[in-house]
Write a structure and sequence with these properties.
Helices cover 40% and strands 15% of the residues. By secondary structure, the chain is an alpha+beta fold. Strand 2, helix 5 and strand 3 form a beta-alpha-beta unit. It is globular, with a radius of gyration of 21 Å. The chain binds pyridoxal-5'-phosphate. The active site is at 192 (proton acceptor).
Length: 380
Amino acid sequence: MAPLQMVDLKRQYLKIKPQIDAAIANVIDTTAFINGPDVKLFAQELQDYLQVKHVIPCANGTDAIQIALMALGLKPGDEVITPSFTYIATVEVVALLGLKPVFVEVDEATFTMTPESLKAAITPETKAIIPVHLYGQSAAMKEILDIAAEHNIPVIEDTAQAIGGTYTFPDGTKKMNGTMGAIGTTSFFPSKNLGCYGDGGAIFTNDDVLAEKLYMIANHGQKVKYYHDMVGCNSRLDTIQAAILRIKLRELDGYCDTRRAVADYYDNAFANHANIITPKRASYSHHVYHQYTLQLDNVNRDKVQEKLTERGIPSMIYYPVPSHKQKMFDGMDVEQVELATTDYLNKRVISLPIHTEMTEEEMQFITRNFIEVVNELTAN
Ligand SMILES: *Cc1c(COP(=O)(O)O)cnc(C)c1O
């Protein structure tokens, strides 16, 4: 068995190598490196896939959130509600723009923003809400959208970890993650479910006015070349990355299915173990398992990781420090919040390898050893 990795991009590449190599060669051959035809074609294909009116490609998933916030025309000091239990990018751009992050709690079982804590955090200063579809699972969008609508606050969905996943509303309507709020954002970082071979990102919206603004902000505030109507930034998706993404988008549903199959295997293997709590699948969410993140109960997590490493099994903690406790917010106008569930989860979560190329042998090896290690550490 080859060394285990959290994500195996090499094996994935080898399966689509001829198409990828040809697509890259074609971009180089035509030297259409910036805003080449593949960028527009990819945006159109992603629009069709997501059933959304506009896709604006950009340089990465962090820029995507930044540009989304800029398009809402917020003023310094406006409050933006986000979970603390997320990758730092979600929160960092809020602070970068001089806006005030207001951290709210996540659900203990689904790891996503709770409607109750969102409701409690809303003030007259709240000007945006950013739910995160963490680990590949949709946030509780019906409740979040209802609360947002009641206060007329736009929702930006951070879909960096959940592209390809869907949310089902109580009336049975199904929507792709990232297409329910005013704006959706995603990342094409190589390890994401739809990853390119470098950096990339995109912004989605069904709103024509917002779409134009988003496009302009990502392109130096211009609609017509050299005429700059607003302060924007320079955030483009490279043509080479777009060409790669066109090929990988065709594989995305298959990639999501294989990730779900790994999660099924793990769930079965760990079912009913007293110290292993498998991730919950919310009934409204088609979970696409960007991560397989479980909780350890009454086991020393550091020791588990140590013993897994000895056995050649990688594991990760996403994320070791919650956003509201990061030093970057020291001295900043961030409310001192108590987030008991976030702190609790931060000490309990551990993520196991999950990717599109896992073999039965690898899954068997990982689950057998994981259970052995947990049993050893809880034996007395
Ligand atoms: C990866 C990620 C981002 C940022 O994406 P980049 O392309 O790395 O900038 C934002 N939010 C979440 C939840 C992510 O996982």
